[in-house]
Amino acid sequence: MNNKVDIETGLRLINRKDENFEEWYSEVVASAELIEHYDISGLYILRPSAVEIWETLQAFFNPEIKKMNVESCYFPMFVLECHLKKEKAHYDGFKPEVAWVTKSGQSDLETHLAVRLSSEAIIYPYYSKWIRGHRDLPLKLNQWCNAVRWVVGDPIPLIRSREFLWQEGHSAFASEEEADAEALEILELYRRIYEEYLAVPVIKGTKSVGDTCGGAIFTNAVEAFIPNIGRGIQGAATHCLGQKFAEKFEINFEDKKVEKTMVWQNSWGFSTRTIGVMVMVHGDDKGLVLPPKVASTQVIVIPVPYKNVDCEGINDACKAAVKMLREEKIRAELDSRDNYSLERKYSEWEMKGVPLMVEIGLKGLGNKQVCVVRRDNGAKIDIANADLVEEIKKLLNNVQQNMLDVAKQKRDECIQVIHTWDEFVEALNQRKMILGPWCDEKVVELDVKQWTENEMGAAKILCSPFDQPELPEGTKCFASGKPAKKWSYWGRSY
Amino acid sequence: MNNKVDIETGLRLINRKDENFEEWYSEVVASAELIEHYDISGLYILRPSAVEIWETLQAFFNPEIKKMNVESCYFPMFVLECHLKKEKAHYDGFKPEVAWVTKSGQSDLETHLAVRLSSEAIIYPYYSKWIRGHRDLPLKLNQWCNAVRWVVGDPIPLIRSREFLWQEGHSAFASEEEADAEALEILELYRRIYEEYLAVPVIKGTKSVGDTCGGAIFTNAVEAFIPNIGRGIQGAATHCLGQKFAEKFEINFEDKKVEKTMVWQNSWGFSTRTIGVMVMVHGDDKGLVLPPKVASTQVIVIPVPYKNVDCEGINDACKAAVKMLREEKIRAELDSRDNYSLERKYSEWEMKGVPLMVEIGLKGLGNKQVCVVRRDNGAKIDIANADLVEEIKKLLNNVQQNMLDVAKQKRDECIQVIHTWDEFVEALNQRKMILGPWCDEKVVELDVKQWTENEMGAAKILCSPFDQPELPEGTKCFASGKPAKKWSYWGRSY
User: Fold this and answer.
1) A318 shares its domain with A391
2) How far is the C-alpha of B183 from the C-alpha of B436, rounded, in Å?
3) B284: distance to nearest CA of chain A, Å?
4) How many CB atoms are located within 10 Å of the residue A297 CB?
5) Does A201 share its domain with A340?
6) Which stretch of DSSP H or E encloses residue B447?
7) Residue contact A105–B112, C-beta within 8 A
8) CA angle B403-B408-B410, nearest 5°?
9) Interface contact B112-A103, CB threshold 8 A
10) Residues B252, B367: one domain?
11) Domain named Aminoacyl-transfer RNA synthetases class-II family profile: which ranges (chains A, B) (predicted)?
12) pLDDT digits (tens, 9 = 90+) for B99-148
């Protein structure tokens, strides 16, 4: 194989996942044609392979939230500054990242318009209008849209881009209990997106005060971890807003005793970042590795021609295989291009992460079998033609499960339980996801950040897991020596 | 019934469709809760009943274009002025309506960014990059997104708003024939959206030069007509761009003879305007009338209680009916609210346009039957419980078909064939959709516009229909007296 040609045609990666992770990531998302760089910094084109994954996640999530009686809506993407300012912590968090429209055509606008960063300040004035009595509750709306955050730091395709696609759900309840229950139900859907669809293991937990969304009481999240660089990454979040916004936006209702009461609110969202996390966890030095459930092409069928032999029989067998698979709703494609070498085709489909490659050649034709290559572990399996559909179905399930299992094993190997500061520092140097007993004081997290700051960034709390190990009485915080109140995951983060 | 209370609670319309159409329209879209006015002029909130119609149209259209091998993508919504300017006619058309982002946070941006109006100038630089050889063609991409046109004239909810949702398809072909064939195939899908889903009859045709999208060779459209005010409205369009953009954006490929050739392009889109057209055609003085295929609630089941009688049996029968209907995938809901009068419930569901109302009372309970009221024509039908599901299914189909038939009949009654200027003027005064022989000269259309301009606007060409009546030799243009070249529809327009 001619490596030089492959690199030039984008079929081989220059960078290695374990050597220079960030360059590897940038290279793989572009070479696998998930994204294309755009000529405005921090913006990226989402190409069909990325958008089709997004559509698969939408097709799962939208019906699930409709079962919960969440309705679809669409609010304008521009907001007046006066509304954006109403909840101060919310505004302070977003202020540096606002994109402002100040002109239309040749004219200056009378009032500057902020482009949607998140729609609390856009939506809640109308919740105030629409909610009157307890029969108007709960009010649960969701929209699929773009959002813009003009981040100042280094943008990363899919992970931290200045425009992204997401869903944002906004709900208002009569009671705190209902709000809290919904937040957990949504978080479970986010877990399923990661674990069942993207084959990425996540930990459910509560973010620290420093990472709580501006204006929220607390933020719950599903947290993923990237072993190769030892960084946590927030996968998706539900924000329990309590009555903070209700107070500022005057969202009240008359309860059954005809007393004016403020509503309890949540907001929750997941974005195209999900796709970036999937790439980081599963990609390898050959390119993307796609879990079958989200792969727009699950099986690529490739004819293996022989010199000086009429290939019609091989091509017919390939076509027949594709047809059979498609009839069973397996997303199979035929690569019949005769101007590319076999090696080039292999490299291309490996780069794009197609879960299964089916090769049909002269030998297989004689033996009435095909050769299947798994993208996830490289295993080659011969399958009798008669069993093709059944075996491919099994293999797709197996690949999906194996990808989650392997990712979970790798993630779990990174988890290090510590009790002391020395253990913490050692684990951090080893890029672990560190589980330590913690006094739950904001100032101590700030101290830890300061003490660990270096060119790779500082350590922080990733989350305090819902699933808490036992905390024997007398356990001390690893950082402050004060009595520990809970276990938290620590590490560097995106 | 207490009219005053109904008007105050938004359950009765103040305006009449035949008396003051525009006020009626504004009132009905808000009262039926399709939209809510927003505090920035020209922007509207799309409420669940509107977005759910949009989702239904998406669920039809997206799989259809995927069968045509159109792939999904998402391009950034900001574009540099230098790209926007490249195709002059395109830029000139959009220039007055551009929303400009000039600041991020507190800082001025180095370059001003235009918010997406339509994505030709955003997408085609990348077509130039991605298209190299004939094997890269056709390239067919579609995105579902928002777009912003800061229109200066009066905004109309859903019909002409400053932000709207749409799909925009962009395709590039090796030959003009392939491009033209695709444009017709897409136009047929647009016809089906209007006729099969929204029950709105449309005419396929070519727009006049004056209404051709800036940068296109010609624009084909599906044209609807609103009898009550005698105005045409463009429903959706395909733009045949020829090689104009290919030249400006340098989109070339090496054809099979290895010669550099420019691609042939189309762009095509339909927007949330579809929903506004549906309201204008079908709405009445009681509110919205929804075609069953797009109604998120197709059947509302209402218990009819009797004074001093235990209503448990009635309520149970209602619940059982909803359950049965839902099991057969009919979108049925129960209105069990006990704090609203029957009259109020009727008004509310009429306002929201729910196709069928099923009433279950004591009498029906005894006779084992229910009473069904059709929203489209007010007919009341008794149905035996045993036949409920079958009969409701039939009725839903019947309502869908009847709405299209009635709308087509009303539209057809507005079509007036004319041959002379006097006939034209008379027909225009009668608010007709005027079919006349036409010399196909741009300057004559401008003359007609000038001659007919009054406070209601000027007459213009709505479209030249694909389906051309016979044009006997010697037929003269109704406006210029020159030899006629084709038949065109004329009238006032949105």
Assistant:
1) yes
2) 26
3) 24
4) 18
5) no
6) helix B442-452
7) no
8) 100
9) yes
10) no
11) 42-291
12) 999 999 999 999 999 999 999 999 999 999 999 999 999 999 999 999 99
